[in-house]
Amino acid sequence: MVKRTGGPLLSSLRIDRDASQPVSTQLCAALRELILAGGFKPGDRLPASRTLGHDLGLSRTTVIEAFDRLTAEGLIESRVGSGTFVSAALGADRPMPVEPPIPASAAAAPALSTVMAQALARHGARQRLPHVARAFTTALPAFDAFPVAQWARLSSRHMRGARNEIMGYGDPGGLPELRRAIAAHLRAHRGIVCDPGQLFVVGGAQQAFQLVAAALLNPGDKVWFENPGAIGARNSLIAAGADLVTVSVDEHGLCVDEALQRAPRWRLAFVTPSHQQPLGRVMSLERRFALLQAAEQAGAWVIEDDYDGEFFFGGRPLPTLKSVDTTGLVIHVGTFSKSLFPALRLGYLLLPPALVDPFAAIIGNFLQGVPSHTQAVVASFIDEGLFAAHLRRMRQIYRERHDALVHGARRRLGGLLEVEPTPGGLHTVAWLPPQVRGTLVSAEAAAKGLTASSIARFAVNGDIDHNGLVLGFGCVSPPAIEAGLEVLARLLEPAAGRCRPGSTA
Which residue range is the domain that position 492 belongs to? Predict the structure, then answer.
């Protein structure tokens, strides 16, 4: 058995054997500079003298001599039976290393591709929202209710499997066991009949959107896009050079007639029919068939983003767009970020038969796939019935948290904020009085430690009349929801009072 040796690799240290300065002195100076420059923190362990000598091609005696000098200077200390460590005395008083100035040539903005430069310009100055479990963060599941013990058991079991399977290069299209498990799940829980060969496992829904856009769109192609709509999908399509045709969303979903008037010739549509992002509306069956008919007439593709459709708690859900599609033009995108947890970075594409071979070639040539171990754990989680049990439990939890938000807002924020009930998902919207702007409330809420996004944030070009907030409840316990509503009340009461008719404020 090969003995394991500790301490960092210090291969960057340079020793000049032709120099007049003794080798031990050079090593002492190099280690001193590294320690004082912050390359080591107080308490960090140095390699053993034998190990460092082997790494640098020096005798152990030379290394010990250098260590003795540094010990005398108080920079390192030896602990019997443990090794040699950077002195704990080097703490807060040590000055921070100064970064060398960046050369003017390196500071100049690089020349990006035309498509990417335009995409960044169109994206504007939006910053990512904080993805922390607090009121009222969206798109985060209930981490506190996840069955970690079951997950750890499955993960440990697979780590004891064949090393070539868990450590090698897997199938870029996805682990066959997971593709079969997803196909069975979609048939049982979403009413979608498909062959595992139509499914491709990808690094989250975002990669799915990027892949579809790269494969099917040319710069300038028109894409029907819900407005307000999903920010991640919007950015992926813009990055591919798509010409987004913004389409209104009413209580029935995407307004297909409006879309046909604005762009009768189109290449792709992006919709979130099960729980519109961000308004939470469910696309009616009539509107779904109208969209499919328009796609068939135009020979266009439709992306159905089923990002949180697993969590419909308002009765029986409408069938997915994919399950009623007879055109062969719907691309169904699913993700485990909401149904399990985001750090998996795991999603899937369910493709129409006509796209299977082209996408198999694209994925096989240009993608490396998702880690096999992660896929194996998810496959077992589904096959053993744990996924179905988890979804069933989470639907109940999300219903309780949704109800806590709706009822709590009625009690505490009546007349100030009208929370709209939603039949599923992890978030809903809340409408503000006309005189109170959602963007201002969102900024003030952030300063108080709340995440209450303005609906305007989800507008493609800022051209939207919706005045309200998007409130997540999935990752927030009922007591935290109550506390968050109290903060919103304290923010909204003065703002509403200042703007009431007859107010002298």
Answer: 394-498
